[in-house]
Amino acid sequence: MRKLIVLLYVSMIFSTAVYAEDVEMEMDLMQNIEDVNKSLASNIALQRVDPSLEDANQLTSMFEVVEAHFIKKGDAENAVDLSKKSKQLSQDIAKLVTEKNFDTATNLATDLSRACKSCHTFYKKE
Amino acid sequence: MTSRRDFLVHTGLGLGGAALAGFVPGLTINSATAAELIDPLAPKQPHFAAKIKSVIWLHQDGAPSTIDLFDYKPELVKQAGKEVPSSFVQGIKTSTQGGVGKLWVSPDRTWKQYGESGAWFSNLLPNLAKQADNLTFIKSSITVGATHDISILKLNTGDLNPGRPSLGAWISYALGSANPDLPPYVVLYNGKSEPRAGSVNWNSGFLPAVYQGTAFRPGDSPIFYLSRPELRGAEQQRNSLDLLKQLNHAGSQRHPSDTELKARLRSYDLADRMQVSAPEAVDLSKESDATKELYGLNDSISASYGTTLLRARRLVERGVRFVQVVTGEPSGDNGDVTSWDAHDDLEKNHSVKARQVDKPIAGLLEDLKSRGLLETTLVVWTSEFSRTPWGESGSGRDHNPWGYTQWMAGGGLKPGFTYGATDALGVQVEDKEKAVDTYDLHATVLQLVGLDHLKTTFLNNGRSERPTVVYGKVIKDILA
Questions:
Q1: Which tens digits make up the pLDDT trace of B438-474?
Q2: Which of B71, B168, B233, B420 could form a disulfide with B185 if both were Cys (CB 3.0 to 4.6 A apart)?
Q3: Quick check: A5 pLDDT over 60?
Q4: How many CB pairs under 8 A join A and B?
Q5: Could you say which residues from 7 to 66 on chain A have a Cβ atom under 8 Å away from some Cβ of chain B?
């Protein structure tokens, strides 16, 4: 159910991104990223292929939104870079779990968490 | 002949043991529950060869100013009295209670290099300075700066909210006990009251309760009601305890998944054995006068902390895996100086606090080394955060979570080595790639006790949890 809500949320953000010029990224999205990221770490640890893949794909979609937001916002080169890096990591994780290479996927998921934390240090609102 | 009950118990344990070692991912039963069926504190194999057997976790409560102890900043001395250049506070939120004042240094501070490593120490730590070549500095520590209580919780559990297990609890869970007569995880403190924020900092969170830390009070009787009442005979007590044990264990067989009940029974059994072992472990009467002096027991300010550290060494000698020592109020009458929290009059505060810990910690390191225990023990100097280079209230310093020093000493490390750095003023970490957060420190400690933090897992409500939450990176550069 939670994943359905996240998917609907991402779809809504995409729709908004398409039809509205001035998108303000909501903090809920960052919270959702954190939640899905925790779910991903757990699913990789438990070596669950399909749920891991689902989480990784959701994260890829959400990081696309984040990247678009910071490109539009401007003067946030670091955040754009971190979004791109996070998106790439999510895609790599998706590939790795498909190959059942869970050890490497775990390491990349940890890198992804660090990238999220770095970005929050600078851009998360109090 | 194997009964049906024995078969079920042993089958469950086999699966549980495998799951504990991380070999059965996705197992739908709670792995620790299965292992609980025999002895949850039985020794368990690490993931790889351990470099150390025990950890002494020295929490410097209140957040010492490490730019006044270890992290010499000549540029800060030059710039004292001026505003902080904006480039130094870029990217950090300085909304701490004191605001950003002018850069400040104590007029009494002097600095000197020690040992072959040339590590800098201030005049506040003359004894610890002599241990320079035994220390491995992490000068790029970061954390989340919140209230002391919240950041202390993160320091010990990795989270800002209560509910996660402390590092010591994870180690107890993953490795079990090396001495059946003592808890594997002991918390020590000096002073009149328990450490601030209390037992959430040594509890077991979602792990079974048996893995939580046991707090030893200062004084001759470390645990309440451990001694037999005078009016009760030894045999009378023995018979009564044996009967109670039989009844309790009969009761617990009817509730095999109740880990709280099992933890309580285990505590009763342990308490029974600890009536002898715990007082002996903390009894310093057989320690020599020279040893007591080494730990600063002859000094009015350091006596109580020195006593605590001497007890820590005795516990490590007896196989306790994780000793969490919280720096409490110094001995004697020191006015309002209790913790390291120097928002004003830092010189007075740190002079007392440094004198409280300097000789005892140096003595601990010296003593461990002379007994051959430093090779198998990890001593960690840690704090919830540190303090700003700008002044507060004229002569104090505010909280700094953006860049500070922690250090470790002991087996498996490069001694006399420094990792990372803060910027020229000591505001924040110089190279963000080298930032060491709580999770990284925890991952490194776990690595040294032989545990892969990524594979030290526990299934909680269907989710695989680990000590480093979703973070953690072993600081490989400091490992020998």
A1: 999 999 999 999 999 999 999 999 999 999 999 999 9
A2: B168
A3: no
A4: 48
A5: 37-39, 41-43, 45-48
Same-domain pairing of B302 and B433:
yes
Of B25, B92, B470, the CB nearest to A109: B470
Confidence of residue A121 (pLDDT cuts 50, 70, 90): low
User: What's the farthest any 2 CA atoms get from each other in chain A?
Assistant: 41
Amino acid B14: pLDDT: 39
Structure confidence by residue, pLDDT tens digits, B4-30: 444 434 443 333 443 443 333 333 334
With an 8 Å Cβ cutoff, is A90 touching chain B? Answer: no
- Quote the tokens at residue A44: 């990789």
Q: Are residues B162 and B266 in the same domain?
A: no
CATH of the domain at B350: 3.40.720.10
Residues B470, A37: C-beta atoms closer than 8 Å: yes
CB < 8 Å & 24+ apart, contacts of B428-435 = B428/B88, B428/B89, B428/B91, B428/B92, B428/B142, B428/B402, B428/B403, B429/B140, B429/B141, B429/B142, B429/B402, B429/B403, B430/B140, B430/B403, B431/B140, B432/A118, B434/B140, B435/B140, B435/B141, B435/B142
Say yes or no for a CB contact (<8 Å) between B470 and A39: no
What does the pLDDT look like over B193-250, one tens digit per residue? 889 888 999 999 999 999 999 999 998 788 777 777 888 888 888 898 889 888 888 8
> Quick one: pLDDT at residue A95?
98
B472 falls within a domain: yes
CATH number of A25-123: 1.20.120
Same-domain status, B301 and B255:
no
The tokens for A35 are 């939640």
DSSP state of A21: S
How distant is the Cα of B470 from the closest Cα of chain A, in angstroms? 6
Q: What is the model's pLDDT at position B132?
A: 98
Query: Which chain B residues contact residue A47 at CB under 8 A?
Result: 25-26
Looking at the complex, report in whole angstroms how far the Cα of residue A18 sits from the nearest Cα belonging to chain B.
Answer: 31
CB A29 within 8 A of CB A83: no
B1 shares a domain with B134: no
**Out of A47, A106, A118, whose CB is closest to B454?**
A106
Chain A touched by B264 (CB under 8 Å): no
Q: For the whole model, what pTM was predicted?
A: 0.88
pLDDT for the residue A118:
79
